[in-house]
Amino acid sequence: MKKYVIERELPGVGAMSPGELKGAAATSNAALAQLSPKVQWQQSFVTADKTFCIYLAESEAAVREHAELSGFPANKITEVSGIIDPSTGG
């Protein structure tokens, strides 16, 4: 599986209530269930008007299929080529 960062433009998402975010996650989970095991959602970072989602997927096409099924846009999909963190610097 490849790792992807998906940028979704969702105006006002940062102002959503916990209940609204729960509903959005449930919608995403329902789409994921249809695509399993081709796509896995790891986590999303919510900002004022966007989410940045981390997915594992067989391909970019599988990520796009999830976006179509869930109704959430995938404005930009970027494949992750590596990961660094503070421990990388030794």
Tell me what you see in this structure.
Helices cover 32% and strands 31% of the residues. By secondary structure, the protein is α+β, with helices and mostly antiparallel strands. The chain has one domain: Alpha-Beta Plaits (2-Layer Sandwich), CATH 3.30.70. Strands 2-3-1-4 form a 4-stranded antiparallel beta sheet, covered by helices on one side. Helix 1 crosses helix 2. The mean pLDDT is 97.
Task: Give the arrangement of secondary structure elements.
Layout: E1 2-9, H1 18-35, E2 39-46, E3 50-57, H2 60-70, E4 76-79
Helix pairs in contact: 1-2
Number of strands: 4
Radius of gyration: 14 Å
Q: What number is the mean pLDDT?
A: 97
* CATH fold call: Alpha-Beta Plaits
Q: What is the H/E order?
A: EHEEHE
- Give the helix proportion (percent range): 25-40%
Unreliable segments (pLDDT under 50, ≥5 consecutive)? none
- Overall number of domains: 1
Q: Summed up, what is this model?
A:
This protein is α+β, with helices and mostly antiparallel strands and 90 residues long. It has two helices and four strands; from the N terminus they run βαββαβ.
Task: Name the descriptors.
2 helices; 90 residues
